[in-house]
Amino acid sequence: MISRSVFQIDCTGVVPECGFECAKCVKEIGLSLTRMKGVGNFYTDGEGVTVEYDAEKVTAEQLKDILKRLPSFYESHFVPSIV
Questions:
Q1: Are 42 and 29 spatial neighbours (Cβ–Cβ below 8 Å)?
Q2: Domain locations in the chain as residue ranges
Q3: In which element (H, E) is residue 43 found?
Q4: Are 39 and 51 in contact (CB under 8 A)?
């Protein structure tokens, strides 16, 4: 069953002036999510991400946990919340 979840991502702790438009961050989000079994597409949308996934293979909470560990190249990390 294909599901869709929207995650708002607070990145102000990472780069306050970025506004979630950093190509490096967006690329890492895409690679991290699409490597997960069951994840189809993802779309950036303002200050968030919409993820399409197979709910029988991965949960929204697992996706949120992946987003919590990003970006890997800064000391701080995103603070995701499910909308």
A1: yes
A2: 2-82
A3: strand 39-45
A4: yes
Question: Dihedrals φ, ψ of 20, to 5°?
Answer: 60, 40
Q: Which two tokens stand for residue 78?
A: 């995103």
How does pLDDT run across 19-63, given as a tens digit for each residue? Answer: 666 788 889 999 999 999 999 999 888 778 999 999 999 999 999
Indicate if the alpha-carbon torsion angle 58, 35, 1, 82 is positive or negative.
positive
What whole-number distance in Å separates Cα of residue 35 and Cα of residue 18?
25
Can you give the pTM of this predicted structure? 0.85
CATH for 2-82 is 3.30.70.100
Dmax over CA atoms of the chain, in Å, equals 38
Q: Are 40 and 52 in contact (CB under 8 A)?
A: yes
